[in-house]
Design goal:
mainly alpha; single chain; about 150 residues; flat
Length: about 150
Amino acid sequence: MIVQSVKAKKRRRVKDGALKILIWASALFAVGMMAAIGIYILWNGRPHIIGAFFTDPYRPGLGQTCIRPMIVSTLALTGLTILIATPIGILAAVYLAEYAKKGRVLSIIRFATESLAGIPSILYGLFGFALFVTFFKLKYSILAGALTLSV
């Protein structure tokens, strides 16, 4: 009986070690492939990455491309989203942790917040488009995007 348990433990240890090696090898392979793709993109794109690429105005019809407007709009969208979502999130967390009494309302709020975490982001985008762009007529704007991201 004791011999079988020692053999079973040894077999289990060998299987665990082999599985650990397989998992590490898979992770290293995935990271290596991502690094190879990044290096390939940077190596082949290096002639196009000059100072003007980051600073010139965007004129796609003239063959001049740059990323300054994309960087500025991304920073503006992120900043506005943080300004909208942070106070709401903090106040909601304080309310739920300190003031909400156990009961039906609290369980509904917790169920709703946990359910929102499982919704795919494309549905949030469609919701934001339908509500902020179409219904509230904010058009395609940074405000509409920030409100959608805040949801």
